[in-house]
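Hello, quick one for you while I still have it in my head. A protein chain has come my way and I'm curious about its shape. Can you walk me through what the tokens say about the fold? No rush at all, and the record is pasted right below.
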Amino acid sequence: MAKKIAILLTLVLSVGMLSACGPKSIEEVEGQEYECSQFSALCPADWSNSPVYELNNKDTVSINHLRFYKAELNEGEESSSALYSNAYVDIGHYPVDSKVFDSRDVLQNVEEVSININGTEWKGYVGELAGYKNALLWKGNSGEWQVSVCLTDDDGDIEFEDYDFQAILASIKKK
């Protein structure tokens, strides 16, 4: 009888410990605030920040992009190598009247999506490219805020329901 109680107690404690892991809301997500010259956003504690460089000048950090990888970089690991091995969120800010960048024609199995985070609607689409699931989201009806997301990788995926992902989007603040 004592053995059965011990086993039951172990199971209850194990379930309790598992449910205690990770944040239970956007507000509980911890991390570091990063900024570029146009905005700031939260990079969750178990994610990594990587500078985004201008397309026309590989030595100049972009003034309107932040990129966070869903992985902690190992000591000495280049952040640019994380692009090809980890799920990530790339946030871009553009002039208010900008047209949304549309890459649906290069994706397969495209589906429209709409996500509401703390009262803010993000619209966009999800599709597959080279076996990986990707999304492009924009805030409201404008191309001012565009978020490119690589949803899948070999180590872990990003789900729209994940509190760390939602915390990133909810934390975006224009300067």
